[in-house]
Design brief:
Elements lengths: L21 E7 L3 H12 L8 E7 L3 H13 L5 E6 L5 H9 L6 E5 L3 E3 L3 H11 L3 E4 L2 E2 L32 E5 H6 L13 H11 L3 E4 L5 E3 L7 H17 L5 H5 L3 H12 L8 H22 L6
Parallel strand pairs: 1-2, 1-4, 2-3, 6-9, 7-10
Antiparallel strand pairs: 4-8, 5-10, 6-8
């Protein structure tokens, strides 16, 4: 019989006067309406305004950066905001640039289309106060107005054993990382281009540095975008995840990423058979595109033509 464990303490991190605890890190491009909505969501946080800040990098020209900075200043937000940008960077490097001057001991990697619920920042801060060598994985929900039938998006079904999360769950959408650990591993690899590789690469480097992964109850955010409908991104992710495997040769990596050749063969057979008609068509297209991308990258690697 498993030994019962007492619930983790939840220290009070909401009082003002203790300095910045959480730095929200966001990279964005041409999503100004979402940024205004995100600013409003951050203004509604239960964590004291003096205990967090928002650092935002825009992959846009200087005039657009100035416009967004002016819009946010006009909102008279109660927390500190820094807006940088002016050059078009890969998403990993853009997040690194946003995080460079962070004052918080915790970095909350929070994409522009992810709006945290009011208690989210306090929940992430509380986790790190109890477990300082941990990556926090906040739940992601799809807003009701974007849902199609009863289909759940993949980000709504993360793997878990109790409160333990897996490294594959960590993304730049709603994950918190000790700032010192982020810097110690070099942050995101600025060389990653395209879609889908920078997050698992960082997660595996954090795991190698000894960090654990935990879900963050109450650290939810609403993800304003569907995943299953984007087969182009699925193809890019399949290729990128093979490249992650080529860098990180731990035995679990190709299985967790779904790019082991045996898994790809099974997936293609399952998605091409008559029973595939039982699947949601968008899900089927997404999974086929992912498998095709992984297969193409594996073939390119075998011939020495892999994506740099």
């Amino acid at each position: 019989m498993a030994e019962a464990r007492a619930p983790e303490a939840a220290p009070d991190v909401s009082s003002a006067g203790g300095g910045v605890v959480v730095t929200v890190v966001t990279a964005s491009r041409r999503r100004h309406a979402l940024l205004r909505a995100k600013a409003a969501a951050l203004a509604a946080q239960t964590l004291a305004p003096g205990a967090f800040e928002w650092r935002l990098w825009l992959n846009e020209p200087d005039e657009a950066v100035a416009a967004v900075r002016g819009e946010l200043e006009a909102m008279r937000l109660p927390f500190a905001v820094w807006v940088g940008g002016g050059s078009d960077e890969p998403v990993g490097r853009a997040r690194n640039l946003a995080a460079e001057g962070a004052r918080g001991s915790v970095l909350l990697l929070s994409d522009d289309d992810c709006l945290p619920v009011p208690g989210a920042l306090a929940a992430h801060a509380a986790l790190h106060a109890v477990r300082p060598r941990t990556v926090g994985v906040g739940p992601l929900r799809l807003p009701a107005e974007l849902r199609r039938g009863r289909r759940a998006e993949p980000f709504e079904r993360p793997a878990a054993v109790g409160r333990r999360a897996f490294w594959i769950n960590m993304t730049g959408a709603n994950s918190s990382v000790p700032a010192a650990a982020f810097r110690a591993v070099g942050g995101y690899d600025p060389g990653w281009r395209g879609y889908g590789g920078e997050d698992p690469d960082l997660a595996l480097r954090l795991r190698a540095a000894g960090l654990g992964f935990r879900h963050v109850p109450g650290g939810d955010a609403y993800h304003h975008g569907r995943v299953w409908d984007d087969a182009e991104k699925a193809y890019a992710a399949g290729r990128a995840h093979v490249r992650v495997w080529s860098r990180h040769r731990a035995p679990d990596v190709p299985w967790a990423l779904g790019v082991h050749p045996w898994l790809l063969a099974l997936k293609r057979a399952a998605l091409a058979g008559p029973w595939a008609r039982l699947l949601d068509e968008g899900v089927r297209r997404y999974e086929l595109a992912y498998a095709r991308g992984a297969r193409d990258e594996l073939r390119a690697a075998a011939t020495g033509e892999a994506t740099p």
